[in-house]
Amino acid sequence: MRAFPAVKEMGTPMGITTRFTLPQADIPTQWYNLAADFPEPLPPPLHPGTRQPAKLEDMAAIFPENIIQLEMCSERWVDIPEEVRDIYALWRPTPLLRAVRLEKALQTPAHIYYKYEGASPAGSHKPNTAVPQAYYNKLAGTKRLSTETGAGQWGSSLALACKMFGIECVVYQVKVTYQHKPYRKLLMNTWGATVYPSPSEHTEYGRKVLAQDPDSPGSLGIAISEAIEDCIKTPNTKYSLGSVLNHVCLHQTVIGLECMKQMALAGEEPDVVIGCAGGGSNFAGIAFPYIREKIVNGKKTRIVAVEPASCASLTRGELRYDFGDTAEMTPLMMMYTLGHKFIPPSIHAGGLRYHGMAPMVSHAYKLGLVEAVAYDQLKIFEAAMQFAQTEGMVPAPESSHAVRAAIDEAIKAREEGKKKVILFNLSGHGLMDMPSYDAYMAGKLGN
Ligand SMILES: *Cc1c(COP(=O)(O)O)cnc(C)c1O
Question: Does domain 7-28+83-124+247-441 fall into CATH 3.40.50.1100?
C-alpha cells in the first residue's frame, strides 16, 4: 500500500491549504456602499425629458420606494435584513480557493486565489441581489416582478428569489439564448417563472421590433424595454434589474467583504483583484471593498475589470449620459457606453453583452481607481479549458474572462520572477454552458 506517496509523485501539491471557508455567522451583516467614499461625487441619473436629476417619483412607476432609496443611498454601510441573510445562508459564505494546480501548470511563483460564486442554487453571484430585491418588493406589497435576461442567469436567479417570497415572476429572455440554451429556461420554469422569448408579441415594443425584423435575435436592450413596458402596463407589477444599478452593486459587495476575511485566513493580501465585467455587478462585488482600502488607507492594490473585446464598454466606449435600454424608457445614466442602440455580436458569454457599464464602476474607472482589459473569445475559452483541466471547476464563459486575466497576470509574474498574489472572482459555473464548450472544442468558435 503506497497510495499516499503515489499521489505525491503525481504532483499533487500536499500540505498547502487550498480552501478557505467561513462559518455561517460570518455572512456579512452590512453591505458596503462605495458612493460614500468616492473622492468626487457620483453624477446622478437624469430625467430624459428635463435632463434634471431624476427624482424618487420619476422611478416610482418601475421600482418600489425602498429600492429607490437604496439606489440613491449615500450611507457607507447598509444593514442586510435578517430575512435576506437567512436565505444567503443556503450558500454563503461562499468558499475561497487557492488554485495550486493551476499555479503549478503555469510554473508561476504567483499565488492565485478565487472566490467561488457558482455555489448558489442558480450557479452564479446573481442571487446575491435577486434575494434582497424580491425581499424589498415583498415588503412594498409588489405581487409580480418583470425582468429581462440574456443567457438566463439573471432570470433564473430572480425566479428563485421570487419563489422564496411568493411573488409572481415574468421573464423576457433574449430570443437567441431562449432557443439555444433551453436548460436555463427550464430552470426558470422549475422555480415557477413565466418566460417569453424577446422580442415577443406580448408588448407593443416587441411587436414593433418584430414588424421591422421578424427574425430579430433580440438583445438585452430590447428585452429590458419589453420588461419595463410590461411592468408599467400591468397592475401590482414592478421591474427588477440584475446588474448596472447602484443598489445591485451594493448587494454584491458581500463577495469582496467575505474575501477580505478569507484572505486574512490565508495570511495574504492580494496585489491584484480581478473580475469580469458585463453590466459590472460581480466586478463591483469583489472590487468595491478593495477600492475602499485604496481610497481610505492608501493601499496600492491593482483592480482589473475584464470585458469581451466584442462588447467592450470601458476600453472602447465613451463616458457620457446614455439610456439603459433600446426604447429609451430608463433614466439617463452617466456611464461608459457603446450606445444604447448597439447590438453586440452573439458571443458565448451572453451575460457580458450589455452596451453600458454600471455608473459606479464607470466612475471608479474614470477616477483611475480601476483598470480594464478586453479579450477575444478564443483566448477566453483557452483559459477556461486550462482552468477546468487543472482545478476541476468548469467556469461560466463570463467568468472565464477573469480566469484569462488571472492566468496572464500569473504568467507575467513568472516572466518577471516575482511573487504576486492574485485574487479573482469566479462569478459562476459553466455547467449550463456546455454547448459553448462544445463549439469551442469542435473548432467552431470564432472571435
Ligand atoms: C450575468 C453574469 C455576469 C455578468 O454580469 P455582471 O453584472 O457584469 O456581473 C458574469 N458572470 C456570470 C456567471 C453571470 O451570470
Answer: yes
156, 352, 424, 426: residue to mutate for ligand 1 pocket, most atoms within 8 A of CB: 352
Sheet containing 168-174: which strands, arranged edge to edge? 194-198, 168-174, 144-149, 237-239
Q: Please, what is the angle between helix 434-441 and helix 377-391, to 10°?
A: 110
State how far the Cα of 278 lies from the Cα of 45, in Å rounded to an integer.
Answer: 20
Q: Which CATH architecture has domain 126-244?
A: 3-Layer(aba) Sandwich (3.40)
DSSP state of 305: E
Does residue 8 have a pLDDT over 50?
Answer: no
263, 267, 268, 274: CA torsion to nearest 10: -20
Matching CATH topology for 7-28+83-124+247-441 and 126-244? yes
The Cα-based distances of 117 to 4, 152, 211, 212, 219 in angstroms read 32, 16, 40, 40, 26
Q: CB neighbours (10 Å) of residue 370? A: 27
> Considering the entire predicted model, what is its pTM?
0.95
Is the Cβ–Cβ distance between 291 and 364 less than 8 Å?
yes
Q: Could you report the per-residue pLDDT of 382-438, keeping only the tens digit for each?
A: 999 999 999 999 999 999 999 999 999 999 999 999 999 999 999 999 999 999 999
Q: Residue for cell digits 430575512?
A: 83
Q: What angle do CA 20, 24, 28 make, to 5 degrees?
A: 90
Query: What is the per-residue burial (b if ≥16 Cβ within 10 Å, else e) of 50-66?
Result: eeeebeeebbeebbbee
Domain edges within the chain: 7-28+83-124+247-441, 126-244
Give the distance (Å) from ligand 1 centre to CA of residue 370: 18
How crowded is the C-beta side of 267, counted as CA atoms within 13 Å? 3
Q: Report which residue type is found at 378.
A: L
114, 115, 125, 255: residue to mutate for ligand 1 pocket, most atoms within 8 A of CB: 125
